[in-house]
Design brief:
InterPro entries: Thymidate_synth/dCMP_Mease, Thymidate_synth/dCMP_Mease_dom, Thymidate_synth/dCMP_Mease_sf
Number of strands: 0
Order of helices and strands: HHHH
Structural class: mainly alpha
Number of domains: 1
GO cellular component, one term: mitochondrion
Helix content: 25-40%
Pfam families: Thymidylat_synt
Protein name: Thymidylate synthase
Keywords: Methyltransferase, Transferase
Number of helices: 4
Shape: globular
Length: 87
């Protein structure tokens, strides 16, 4: 049971998928999007990345977000395809 107190309907599948995604250390929003969880899509769109100066990032690359920081604290981020094992 997940400790969430609310009177509103909750998209449980999305909550679980996002948590598992964080735990995996992924920074690719497309991993979530393929599972129907679209919450990070806007923050990794080409338009958003270009507007904030991330022109070199591939669409879907969120940069060093929560899961990356949890799994690889202190590691230098390069891109969503890099292998950060042991870093």
């Amino acid at each position: 049971v997940f400790p969430l107190l609310t009177t509103k309907s909750v998209f449980w599948k999305g909550v679980v998928e996002e948590l598992l995604w964080f735990i995996s250390g992924s920074t690719n929003s497309q991993d979530l999007s393929k599972k129907g969880v679209k919450i990070w899509d806007a923050n990794s769109s080409r338009e958003y990345l270009d507007a904030y100066g991330f022109k070199d990032r591939e669409e879907g690359d969120l940069g060093p977000v929560y899961g990356f920081q949890w799994r690889h604290s202190g590691a230098e981020y390069t891109n969503m395809h890099a292998d950060y094992t042991g870093k």
